[in-house]
Amino acid sequence: MKCFAVLAVAGVAAAYPHARPDDPYSVPGPQYEQSYEPAPKQVYKARPAYGNPKSEEYFPPQPYQFEYGVSDQYTGTAFKAAENQDDAGNVLGSYEVQLPDGRRQIVTYVANEKGGFNADVKYEGEAQYPPEPAEGYGNTYKKSNKYAPSPSKYAPAPYQPEPKPYES
């Protein structure tokens, strides 16, 4: 009889039409009003007006002349330079340098608008290379093996594990 009552209640429940539950994951409808107005018209501003380009101010070449030299016997530094320019912009110059290998380098040059910069390099003397480096500010490091670790005073006790008792 209980079985009959349960089947009767189930039949009545199945016969009653049920509404579909709301789908919580559905896409919501639009929340705005659509307007069918045309897009706003683009307004373009006038291009900026630039003035005429300014011409660069021209300064004619000014004649000059200079000369200097250094000779230091203590360090062995020796060089000198000289240069002059005429009112047409042509530059003539030279410099000399005492090189570390004993030679003297002499450079004479001409610079102008048409030919550019032209240099003539000459060397006087023979290169001398000493067998040993000269005394100076070079590498003065001398390797020494003075460091030796001192013997350790600590001696750990020998490892002797105790045997585990046999468990049965």
Automatic annotation (TrEMBL):
It holds the Pfam family Chitin_bind_4. GO terms for molecular function: structural constituent of cuticle. Keywords: Cuticle, Signal. Residues 158-168 have a biased composition (Pro residues). The keyword Ubl conjugation does not apply. Residues 18-43, 127-168 are annotated as: Disordered. It comes from the Eukaryota. GO terms for cellular component: extracellular matrix; extracellular space. Residues 1-15 form the signal peptide. Residues 146-157 have a biased composition (Low complexity). This is Uncharacterized protein. It comes from Tigriopus californicus.
